[in-house]
């Protein structure tokens, strides 16, 4: 079960993930971006620091090429979280519709040209949404994080195959998910 209070505490880092998972620009890798987003006590710090350091070994042009090659030309490293599981099946369309309704319930109006399972959009939504005190939040965010967790699992496995620095970013995102799961008491 998701700890919505913990997820709310982590909102700021989802802005970092959204920024890093979109097409790179010069300011994407400004030193203050990391310093202001990731505290050394964060459970994902080690992976995110490796990611950050690795990316700084490349020029911006090289990073843009890497991003395009990784996320636009490789089917298994897509940033569309339901694609690997459903491809273009009817079930995917239903899940996209459910996600769109979720976003709209919490105040995000999506452009018709965007698909609701795009990982940077999902991270941006968590960063921007206000759900404290909303009775719909546990179920809604449970579904959202389940889609993200499932999609990033496949993405992580594919990134391992390509030995991509983005592997550490996605691993950090998954560590952040784990930190937002409420640990149920063990029964004897």
Structural notes for this entry:
The chain has 188 residues and is mainly alpha-helical. Helices cover 63% and strands 0% of the residues. The protein is built from 10 helices and no strands.
Structural class determined from secondary elements: mainly alpha
Mean pLDDT: 92
Shape: globular
Task: Provide a count of the helices.
Answer: 10
Helix content: 55-70%
Helices and strands, with pairings:
Elements (H helix, E strand, L loop, with lengths): L3 H6 L1 H11 L9 H7 L7 H11 L4 H13 L10 H4 L3 H16 L13 H10 L8 H26 L3 H14 L9
Helix pairs in contact: 2-8, 4-10, 9-10
Short summary of the structure?
The protein is an all-alpha fold and 188 residues long. It has helices at residues 4-9, 11-21, 31-37, 45-55, 60-72, 83-86, 90-105, 119-128, 137-162, 166-179.
Features:
188 residues, 10 helices, 0% strand, globular
């Amino acid at each position: 079960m998701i700890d919505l209070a913990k997820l709310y505490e982590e909102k700021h880092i989802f802005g970092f993930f959204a920024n890093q998972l979109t097409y790179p620009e010069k300011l994407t890798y400004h030193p203050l971006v990391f310093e202001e987003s990731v505290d050394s006590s964060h459970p994902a710090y080690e992976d995110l620091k490796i990611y950050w350091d690795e990316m700084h070994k490349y020029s911006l042009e090289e990073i843009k090429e890497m991003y395009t090659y990784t996320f636009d030309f490789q089917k298994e490293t897509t940033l569309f979280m339901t694609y690997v599981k459903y491809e273009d099946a009817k079930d995917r369309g239903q899940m996209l519709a459910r996600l769109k309704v979720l976003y709209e319930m919490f105040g995000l109006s999506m452009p018709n040209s965007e698909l609701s399972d795009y990982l940077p959009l999902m991270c941006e939504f968590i960063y921007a949404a206000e759900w404290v005190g909303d009775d719909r939040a546990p179920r809604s965010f449970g579904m959202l994080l389940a889609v993200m967790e499932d999609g990033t699992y496949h993405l992580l496995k594919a990134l391992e195959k390509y030995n991509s620095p983005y592997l550490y970013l996605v691993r950090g995102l998954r560590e952040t998910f784990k930190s937002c799961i409420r640990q149920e008491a063990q029964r004897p």
